[in-house]
Amino acid sequence: MSWTYLVPIVLLCASNVFMTFAWYGQLKYPAAPLWAVIPISWGIAFAEYCFAVPANRIGYRVYSAAQLKTMQEVITLAVFAIFSATYLGEALKWNHLVAFGCLALAAYFGFLKA
Predict the structure, then answer these.
(1) Residue-by-residue pLDDT tens, the chain, 114 positions
(2) CA dihedral 90, 92, 93, 96 (to 10 degrees)
(3) Residue 13 burial by CB count (10 A; 0-12/13-18/19+): exposed, middle or buried?
């Protein structure tokens, strides 16, 4: 497998870690004022863009835009599942796993040669 296939996946994983913290990291600090949380989240989201934009630019050489978006969504859910369980301490339940499985199946169909 060429690095062109792998690099976008690695970069999308990194970008999703940053975006998950940008969007949901502040939930652990409900007393923090919004005026402080919003610029901090924007700063974290900037780092996310520094990974996502090259991921899509490089990935578009070998993947379609629909495939890149599908990958991004599956990676987002995987990163969020780990984040919510480890950082927020929320339990993953059977229905979450079934929903994730359905989305993974949808991703499978997105990569079929039509």
Answers:
(1) 688 899 999 999 999 999 999 999 999 999 999 999 999 999 999 999 999 999 999 999 999 999 999 899 999 999 999 999 999 999 989 998 898 889 888 888 888 876
(2) 120
(3) middle
pTM of the predicted protein model = 0.87
Q: Where are the domains of the chain?
A: 3-110
Q: Which residue has the tokens 């499978």?
A: 108
- Helices 3-24, 34-59: axis angle to 10 degrees equals 170
Cα–Cα dist 96/57, whole Å: 31
Task: State how far the Cα of 71 lies from the Cα of 50, in Å rounded to an integer.
Answer: 18
Closest by Cα among 52, 68, 54, 58 to 107: 68
